[in-house]
Amino acid sequence: MWGPVPLAPGPPGTETRCPRPGAPAPVPPVPTLAPRSPQPPAGAAPCPGAEQPHWGQAPAGPGPGAQQRGAGNPRAGGGERGRRRPASARRGPIGRAARRSGSPPIRRAARAPPSNSVAAGPAGPAPSRAAEERGGAEGDGRRAPPPGHVRARGSRRAGAPSLIRASQSGAAGGGAEAGGRPMARRGAGAGPVAAAARGRERRGRAGGGGAGPGAAGGGARLPPAMKCVIAGSNVRALGRAVHALSRIGDELYLEPTGSGLSLRAASPSRSAFASFLLAPLFFQLYQPGPPAAPPRCKVHMKTFLGVFRSLPALEKTVERCLLLLRPRASRLVVQLHCKYGITRTHNLAFQECERLQAVFDTQRCASSLCAPARVLAEAVVHFPQTLAEVTLAAGPGGRISLRSYVEDEAELGKAMVTELWLAPDEFQAVAVVPDSRITFCLKEFRGLLTFAEASNLPLTIHYDAPGRPAIFTLEDPLMEAHLVLATLLDPESSSQPPAANGISHAPAPSDDFADDLESYMIAMETSNYGEDLGAPPSPTFPLRTPHPIESTPQEEEEEEEEDGAVPGTPPHKKFRSLFFGSVMASGGPSPAPSQEVLAEDSDGEC
Amino acid sequence: MPLSTQPLGSGEPYVLTASLDNARNLSSLLRAVQFQDHATCFATANGLRVTVEDAKCIQANAFIQADIFQEFSVQEESVTFRINLAVLLDCLTIFGASSTPGTPTALKMCYRGYGYPLMLFLEEGGVVTVCRINTQEPEDLLDFDFCSTNVVNKIILQSEGLREAFAELDMTSEVLQITMSPDKPYFRLSTFGNAGSAHLDYPKDSDLVEAFHCNQTQTNRYKISLIKPSTKALALSCKVSIRTDNRGFLSLQYMIRNEDGQICFVEYYCCPDEDIAEAEL
Amino acid sequence: MRFRAKIVDLACLNNFSRVVNTIARLAKTCTLRLTAGKLYFILCDKVANGGVSMWCELCQGNFFDEFQMEGVAADHNEIYLELTPENLSRALKTAQSAKAVKIKLTNKHCPCLKVSVELPSLSSSSRIVTHDIPVKVIPRRLWNDFREPRVPDFDVSIYLPALKTMKSVVERMKNLSHSIVIEANLNGEMNLKIETDLVSVTTHFKNLGNPPWASEDGCQSSAQDRDLESMAEARIDIKKLQQLLAGQQVNPTKALCNIVSKRIVHFILLHEDVSLQYFIPALA
Predict the structure, then answer these.
(1) Nearest CA to CA, how far is A206 from chain B (Å)?
(2) Residue A557: its pLDDT value, please?
(3) Which CDD domains match (chain B) (predicted)?
């Protein structure tokens, strides 16, 4: 079908192939390759050659300007009939105007609304986000669309975050409630409630004031809730931390506190949690914002990771990084100051959110190990990338082993099993219960190891009985990192599941049971925007709540199926959930304090 | 008839004959415009222009001037044919796409005229490859009517400064917005993606900016999916000239230095995104 | 049935890894045949003879510092195992700096080849990594399925050009066509050809030389009477050829192919004492 095209007799030439107007005209009648007639007629466009000097280097032959009509080839030439115009030129007003008037139309002048005040005007001191994005950046505002349109768009855009919020809150179990009633918990204090209400009102309007230094719209600028500046090498460290966190979950929680900026993530199945705390010393400038109302927010991990995607580029080009949290604009601004004076400004949508809090206590872990990250990284490298889990065990003579975990008995005969022994003197510290062992996911661990190796830090592993979480920690004066991973329940001991079971439907457990749980439960606490930081979450609260649980039909189904298994723990995998419960406010107007545990399959995770 | 036995000089005369000591000087430029399978080749005595278009909104031209070739002869005023660019590139790089210093692939390219295939003879280290690529009826090309008298703003940048920017474009944004202005922000690339907007600002006195001629503030949006393919040209180029005319049409000219140090050009034209422009009316 | 072997020399380890990597790229599962003096990796794709087959043979003495094996019986002193070469390749991948690698046939829960790698460590004692690679022991009655293939009664035998060039050519051609015609004559000429609606491409190799095949019985093979210029050709699946060229890591000192017109192409790659034979059947 691609064969030679049958051809009418006669030598192929322009005439034969251009029999009539509208027929394909294969040869552009204009020899656009560097026309040899360099004399531009008076008033005509300069010949392509005129372009050249701008390059500072005159190319021989056809230059970049060659596409333009050659001087000697007025476009009125007969061959011109065959040439198509670009879509927009044909359809658009420009094209029409051009054809009508024969002169370059001034599109913007014609189109500009009678007043160019739209961007600044109606939006008032705080231009809508849409205006900021669409109009504000344009200095002259000539393209500024009519107000009604901006509004429409603006409101659509503004709607997006709340949609995300709603849906995500839904996914996050109790989060829906949390999102809706951030102020409820501190019902006593009128102040925070009012503030939060105002916040929502703003959100409802158009999404807040001008965000980002890039916003030309101006408007009332309140001080950002958080402002930090990070210098060169620490930008890389931040980038690596984000990469490690991106292995954990889809959302990144940011919380500036007095002790530093906290970055956190949890896996959808709540089987993994990680936090990086960047100390004030980590920054060139660190202003966490008003201590009375610490802003908390979460952003899409993908989006945030996008800013720091290329670590080598970060290394090569970025000199400084500015982080600004502007709750009024619902924008987290990440600004990278790069080589050659280039600035990259990312205005990221965020959601105000509950605090993501893992409650764990390394002191309660019976075993701990500390080794240079490199030793562990070199150990892990022997395991295939496709392997989901490894078992860490304390063997005779203080030796530590890592072994591929083969989930299915049936797989045993098919899968390669790798085992590695490390002598005690490879560790900086070993304090383990003899014969203890735990099984955890490799993916998240690898992420943290990569970070630790690049930072050249020792890594400490705290663990306890199988089924209870393992805690991996890194510390240095500028930052600390925690990774909390669910461990697999030992098959042998699965008949008597430990603590974390059945919160949502078991009768109120005994106190020591709860106590046990507290040590490793990760509670997702809904806290008021103006809540005192110091108030500890109350992870055990739901345990002692005998209220009936509100659960979705889906969860009910699962409960039936699993018959007493922990929601959030898929039946086929024996992972203990890390139990991110949402601790609800009791004073609010909610029907009942509810405690929901995410019931998502951990398959995606491990 | 086996190609190998087809004598080069017999039969109908070739309307186009070109030979090149290093086929990569051609293939790398063609790769810079390869975002669609088909290309229109247009040859005059001055050289070869290869044009690729998409969506009636974007056009890319690679110019290979005659003196890049060791031999370049066109028997007619102009010669035009359409060809599958992917196939042409596979043929041109039959001995490998990566450059191995010291062993260039020599190329001879012949075309007998309308209805005939394009013949390629490639030789490297004594091994000869003969390719016969069928040509197709050429189609009309878009006329962007981009005229330098109508250019409003123009910036010449070292390509290095745009490479990372283009590599990290937020592809969830439908458009790339380009602002050029005599005043701040001078030169700004913006995207509006799922999770927020991003702006990239270049100061006009940056070392990357070789020339800055902006007469009035212009902000235009272009479909990001159409602009993205020009990244290929950007990767090869050393400098890029960014121009917009009074209609908001965009011209990106890439200056590319080949392995032998010669300068060639690749040019992209793009229409502003009309959906948005119309929607805003 | 017992088998244990040990490699200490790094260069030997490296060579052995390269052979295993090659096998892993060419076969998902294969048969490992162990005899007192040799190892064989065998692939017999019997699917109506539509598939390829492979026969790779190496002398244990050139790789292993220790090599002990006891076959099924004294008069059948051999072991046949089925395994996934990818596993073995993976186990050896992180063993590049090993002090020693031991391979042992074990049967704890299931039959396994246990690869133990002794790695240097920062501590006083070495770090030991073991990989248990599950295998299936192939019973004796099935051994006949894994006989060494006969060199076919070819029409033309010819040395291959530089594999790097050939690989590049075949890779480009693979983008253009599903099948490739490989043709050669006794004058040291070989052509690779594809032809489609869009394009036809032929790459001509010259002066390759034809290997001398001495027939044992003095009987001339059919190649002997051929016209020197006349081409023997076979059309084969281009992906299979590309796999061989891309997958091979043995860097053969000698590479040749035998063409049985319209039936099969037989490739032989030789590197010192490693020989890899690869059979690609012709397409109808």
Answers:
(1) 14
(2) 38
(3) PCNA (cd00577)
